[in-house]
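Hi R.,

Here's the input for the D-malate complex you asked about:
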Amino acid sequence: MGQGAEGVRGAGSRPYLVSVRFIEAQPPASVRKRGTLVLVHAFPLNARMWQPQLALAAEGWHVVAPQLRGFDVDGGGEPHAASIDDYAADVIDLLDALHVESAVVAGLSMGGYAAFALLRRAPSYVGGLILADTRAEADAAAGVEARKRMLQLIVERGSTAADAVADEMIPKLVGATTIASRPDVGAELRTLIRATPPDRIADAVRAMMTRPDSTPLLATIHVPTLIIVGAEDTLTPPPSSESMHREIGGSELHVVPEAGHLSSWERPDAFNAIVSTFLAHRV
Ligand code: MLT
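And here is the predicted structure with D-malate in place:
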């Protein structure tokens, strides 16, 4: 499948958004086309975290991973995100630019928060849903305080803020098994985190901190839904996924052993096998 292609599409459906950057993989010409699979990335990473999932194109899916505004970008040309809805708007703009009316939308953690925002704003775009290592609840008071501390840290650390965020986040992003078995994991994640300017990392912190509670939405979800969580996820632990599974009728829940919060990146073969079975039989 190679590294996947990169692209920019625009001008989108709203005048303020000039373009949406993305990584994609097209299905081979010999395979029947199944549809579009959109992969929405986590904080504070970017679309490159989905590199291992581009292989799903081999099964007939046009795999598209948007770079949410401000992530993995030099300079300040893109609009700032004021809320989680702006990240959902980026997904909508990309789908519009690709002339896709309905896709399977997968979001990991913050990507899941954006998927919920998409379901609130424009549910017709969501023909199937994959919620990975995420949660429906808004931030609790302690979570809001932690976000405020991170915002303060970003201000204090200035140009080295991405490293400060990396120091804080990396031990939480991956599970104990990955930390023990992949000595290079910290450096790989740090490279992804450093690709985003500190003010854009701060935008994302504020967007997550102010996102609404999505639990009332769960019972209204009627598209095929797959929920995946790493067994060692401490940021959005398995009980969060279990409660989403209880609320979303007909949903499937899979726990990936020996994976933490970045289950798709830590155990790509296991993750892709679960997604592949879901796409083949449920969508
Ligand atoms: C993420 O992985 O996207 C974030 O850790 C989510 C969060 O901080 O709530």
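One thing worth noting: The longest helix spans residues 141-157.

Cheers,
M.
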